[in-house]
Design a protein that fits this description.
The complex is a heterodimer of chains A (about 425) and B (about 240). Chain A is mostly helical. Chain A contains 16 helices and 2 strands. In chain A, helix 11 crosses helix 13 (about 315-340). Chain A is globular and about 80 Å long. The model of chain A has no long low-confidence stretch (mean pLDDT about 85). Chain B folds into 2 domains: about 1-75 and about 155-165 and about 185-235, Rossmann fold; about 85-150, no CATH class. Chain B is built from 10 helices and 10 strands. Chain B is globular, with a radius of gyration of 17 Å. Classes of the chains: A mainly alpha (about 425), B alpha/beta (about 240). At the A-B interface, helix 11 and helix 12 of A face helix 2, helix 3 and helix 5 of B. Bound molecules: adenosine-5'-triphosphate and magnesium ion.
């Protein structure tokens, strides 16, 4: 038996590796094998098939190594354990959460932190917030939404237009932008109520594109492809972050008797998004314990059973879309306030895919998973900057590694909304 | 309490129910027996509005519920432990029961869950366990318990003994009899296990390819030679 089994294993491993190498060859031939150079104003196509060969060999070896990877080294994807009693694992997650929040709060005052670090951290937090928002729709309610960026865009444009046209400040715009995004969520929700899975994904994808195309074409209102500029910056409770404030205004640094530094504004923006993200998280954790949150999760598990238990699926889905969209809108407002400039280019499908990747890699429904995934997806390409053009290769390799070792996401475990103390013995 | 008159239900071109008339009075246990594919599950689902009856009328407490939305029908006081149990697999036992209480009043929750735990003590031990990892019998208990959490006045049970060891099935039947006796809950029970079901029920109906062909008290049907030959063959009279 074993004698027969060994050659088949080698054969099948070779076959798999050969197949992978072939796919790599087909892809690498045009993408790596051909490149263009500028020769006196003329683009000339050159070839570098040696690179293709190296790439194909690496893929072949890698696939072969995967087949022979010792089983003991594989990290089993930890799926839902049967019992969810308060075991040590829970405390680790709790500890991780507290550590992450402490680090996040202290980050701007750490000596190693400079403008660049704060900037990247702010971007991470935007994705964390977007991931948490989308998590409500995808992770909890189980509605696959590929057009989430639409709500991000609605939030950003709402803030920009309200602030520019009516002179409203950030805090006045925030609830309005959230409400408008939520309204769009309901608008999207209505036609897709009966759809699930693949069909839902396609329609939401279309919705995301629709919003973007409206933004491009409605020149007079949205500024078209040129976008909107000079969006007012948020102030610290009325204290602007400017070096020379206007007549009658006190700037932040003057009020606190500090030396003017652009870093103050960056740190303020960072704390702003941190607060928004934490509010999103607190809200999600809380709502999971409420009937509406439980109804979302129940709907994800079995819609027919939900109806038979008296849950109104229409309202349940619409609230999931609306609340998810609202958080997208908040994040969008923040984005517009931070950039001071927005255009439709910031709201392409790639952005939706990125947010969805944060949720999926995080492990669908896991709050800490979203933080890990957002950090990974934002920081990795930044680290990769040193490798210049190999940045995306590094990124791709990391994604593949996750797919191999964590196929259900970084933290694929549904934590129950409530864990009861063990049953008393002898209780009837 | 519940009256179905001339109910026709279609799945596309297939006519699953062909003019069904049944009545369930308050406080009764009524059982519905029939072969596979007779339309028993369809009947229970039609009462809940999914699929909807194309012809006929369903009255619950004298009110026409034929065209109501499923969740509204359930809110009137009809609960169902559906075919295949349909437990929320990733949610814990406790969370499943919480969702069962969606329709109920929050202030009744502690009292109701205590009743369920007394009825099915195993669920108390398993309350932090994920629904999908319960055994078949435990899932059935959870399904019934979940339905009871809404304080229904009419409970629809679709084959609660399916796939269970005889002793567990007996336990479930005993539990049904007990809720009926102590809480006066009206029960419409679909069963393959005709012997037990008919012994338990006050009255019964026999459904054959979408039509009611026989009805009577449990004892009458048990004694009926047609019923005996079609549904009680093979020494189940233990
Ligand atoms: N969703 C559906 N679409 C089409 N036909 C269906 C559907 N559900 C049931 N049917 C058909 O309707 C008829 C009645 O089905 P039903 O499930 O009510 O039978 P049943 O009496 O509950 O049988 P069993 O004892 O096997 O559960 C069957 O012929 C079945 O094939
Ligand atoms: Mg059936």
């Amino acid at each position: 038996m074993t004698e027969a089994a060994v050659p088949t294993r080698i054969a099948s491993a070779m076959k798999e590796a050969g197949l992978a190498a072939f796919v790599a060859l087909v892809l690498a031939m045009p993408m790596v094998g051909l490149y263009t150079v500028d020769e006196g104003g003329v683009l000339v196509v050159r070839t570098r098939f040696d690179w293709v060969l190296i790439g194909v060999l690496v893929v072949f070896a890698g696939r072969l190594a995967m087949a022979y990877w010792p089983a003991t080294l594989r990290i089993p994807a930890r799926r839902d354990a049967a019992h969810v009693a308060a075991d040590g694992h829970f405390n680790i997650l709790k500890f991780l959460g507290i550590a992450a929040i402490s680090l996040a709060v202290l980050l701007p005052v750490l000596p190693v932190t400079d403008r660049y670090v704060i900037d990247v951290a702010t971007t991470v937090l935007i994705y964390v917030m977007l991931g948490w928002g989308l998590n409500i729709v995808v992770g909890l309610a189980g509605l696959l939404d590929l057009g989430y960026v639409a709500f991000y865009a609605v939030g950003a444009y709402s803030f920009a237009l309200l602030a520019r046209n009516f002179g409203l400040n950030f805090w006045e715009c925030l609830p309005l932008a959230g409400a408008l995004a939520a309204l769009c969520g309901i608008l999207l929700g209505f036609p897709v109520l009966r759809l699930r899975g693949d069909y839902l994904a396609i329609v939401t994808l279309g919705f995301g594109e629709m919003i973007r195309i409206v933004l491009i074409n409605w020149q007079s209102f949205t500024g078209g492809p040129n976008g909107l500029t000079s969006i007012p910056r948020p102030s610290f409770f009325g204290l602007p972050f400017t070096r020379n404030p206007e007549e009658g205004e006190t700037a932040f640094h003057q009020f606190f008797g500090l030396e003017f530094a652009p870093y103050h504004r960056l740190a303020f923006l960072y704390y702003l998004i941190l607060a928004l993200a934490l509010v999103t998280n607190a809200f999600t954790m809380r709502i999971r314990r409420l009937p509406i949150g439980r109804a979302w999760e129940a709907l994800r598990e079995d819609e027919i059973a939900c109806r038979a238990l008296g849950i109104n699926p229409t309202n349940t889905k619409l609230t999931a879309f609306a609340i998810g969209a609202m958080f997208g809108g908040f994040a969008g407002s923040f984005f517009a306030a931070r950039q001071g400039f927005i255009s439709p280019e910031s709201f392409t499908f790639i952005e939706s895919a990125m947010i969805l990747a944060v949720v999926v890699l995080g492990g669908m429904g896991s709050q800490i998973g979203v933080v890990l995934a957002a950090t990974l997806l934002v920081v990795l390409p930044e680290l990769g900057r040193e490798f210049a053009e190999f940045r995306m290769v590094l990124f791709g390799a990391a994604m593949i590694a996750i797919m191999i070792w964590r196929p259900h996401g970084l933290l694929a475990r549904r934590d129950p909304s409530i864990v009861l103390p063990p049953a008393r013995r002898g209780a009837a | 309490m519940l009256t179905l008159s001339g109910i026709h239900t279609f799945y596309g071109p297939i006519e699953a129910l062909r003019g069904v008339d049944i009545q369930v009075a308050r406080g009764e246990i009524v059982t519905l027996i029939g072969a596979n594919g007779a339309g028993k599950s369809t009947l229970l689902m039609t009462i809940c509005g999914r699929p909807r009856a194309t012809r006929g009328q369903i009255l619950f407490d004298g009110e026409d519920i034929t065209r109501d939305e499923t969740f509204l029908i359930v809110r009137r006081g009809i609960a169902q432990a559906p075919e295949g149990r349909r437990i929320f697999a990733r949610l814990t036992v406790f969370e499943n029961l919480q969702i069962g209480a969606t329709v109920g009043q929050p202030q009744h929750f502690d009292e109701d869950i205590e009743k369920v735990f007394i009825l099915f003590p195993i669920l108390r031990q398993r309350r932090n366990q994920r629904g999908g990892t319960l055994s078949g019998g435990e899932q059935q208990m959870l399904s019934i318990g979940r339905a009871l959490m809404s304080r229904p006045r009419l409970l629809l049970l679709d084959e609660p003994s399916l796939g269970l060891a005889p002793i567990v099935a007996k336990q479930i039947f005993a539990a049904i009899a007990e809720i009926n006796r102590t809480q006066g809950l009206t029960v419409l029970l679909v069963e393959q296990n005709a012997f037990h079901a008919l012994r338990l029920a006050h009255r019964g109906y026999v459904l054959q390819t979408g039509r009611i062909v026989l009805s009577g008290t449990g004892a009458e049907l048990l004694a009926n030679p047609e019923v005996r030959s079609a549904y009680l063959e093979g020494g189940v009279h233990a």
